[in-house]
Amino acid sequence: MKITAFNGSPWGQQGHTHIITQNFLAGASGEGAKAQIIQLIEKKIKPCKNCGACFYKTPGKCAIKDDMETLIKKFMASDVVLFASPVYLENVTSLMKTFIERLMPILEPHYEMDENGEYRHRKRFEIYPEIMVISSCAMPEQGNFQVLELFFRRLARALHTKLVGEIYRSYAGLLLLCREVVQFRPLVKQYTNLLHLAGSQFAQTGRISPEMQVKLHQPLIDPDQYIEYANSMWDKILPKQKTLQITR
Questions:
Q1: How many angstroms separate the Cα of 107 from the Cα of each of 72, 78, 81, 92, 102?
Q2: Any residues with CB less than 8 A from the CB of 241 and at least 6 apart, and which?
């Protein structure tokens, strides 16, 4: 199994999302999967212009000259593509969204109806990689991932493939705070061990079991305790200032 992860976090290897992705793929690699993480922040990816060149002028090839040509080849050469992105204001990062929009060359311009009666672009290739998602959010509620859950289900439909795994980690601040706060380290270690097990399971079966899914999404600590500590950290970092007054 060849798994290619595209990390859309601007923090790259320093962020929560990378920590989750790295531990999951370590478990998969332990079972023989060939895994790679590509940091999109390190690549040159310009926005899609919707010029249509990849449809009719140079079919399957984007007119924009940047790193996407190579990234699309890696995308299509994978058995599984892992989209990794933190939640930024209720959605994926702009970096991840730009990357996804630039995948248009792998589709054809013609429309067809899917099995549910909705139209989509026809596929350009016979087989597309299956996809999975990893996302992180500093807030404690799982509801923060609702937009991403729907988005990636729709994306899987548009790309003629299946969404075969989802890991949505709330309380993500703990993954970095544990470096400074000793009391959080056992919790984070337990979670990263679970990620290894999930990756191992995925490499063996191509799926994450419902039981494992429940474990991966369980709260790491009491939400009130987490929020209290997070707010106290902000109080220490932020300069003392009065509430800004806006003149209308």
A1: 12, 17, 16, 22, 11
A2: none
What one-character-per-residue DSSP string does 13-72 give?
A: GGSHHHHHHHHHHHHHHTTT-EEEEEEGGGS--PPP----IIIIISTT--SS-STHHHHH
Instruction: Please report, as a single letter, which amino acid is at residue 79.
Output: D
Model confidence, pTM: 0.93
pLDDT digits (tens, 9 = 90+) for 207-225: 999 999 999 999 999 999 8
C-beta separation of 166 from 213 below 8 A = yes
Using 70 as the pLDDT threshold, list the residues of the chain that sit under it.
Answer: 178, 180-181, 240-248
Alpha carbon distance 125, 160 (integer Å): 10
3-state secondary structure of 163: strand
- Is there a contact between 9 and 85 (Cβ–Cβ < 8 Å)? yes
* Tokens coding 204: 């063996």
